[in-house]
What does this fold into?
Amino acid sequence: MNNPSQTTRSACALGAIAALVLVAGCASTPPPVEKMAVAEAAIQRASNSGTSANAPGELQLATSKLAAARQAMSAQEYERAGQLAEQAAVDAQAAEIRAQSARSRRAAQESQDAARALREEINRKTVR
It folds into this structure.
């Protein structure tokens, strides 16, 4: 049979190992500094490209997710902060793409209008 002091030492050792595993598990997720920087840069780039006029909803969503990521960073919830930062970057890119698409559609419409006006002018001159 084990004596009480040996049982106590084994329990303490197991407790210490469990504490180390817990601390190591918490420390294994480093702060997502790079992901935060990428998200901030993506939102800044999207904001500078006229996105607020052409894709305000997507840009607002990206901004909100970045704010939530900052809060998670402050709370040392690094995994959640990293996920939110990645989502913010993707949302900012989607906003930028949607804005570019809107600008392209406008440019195409302007080209079609100009071509139509030119055809009408040519037709008027050839009919005379």
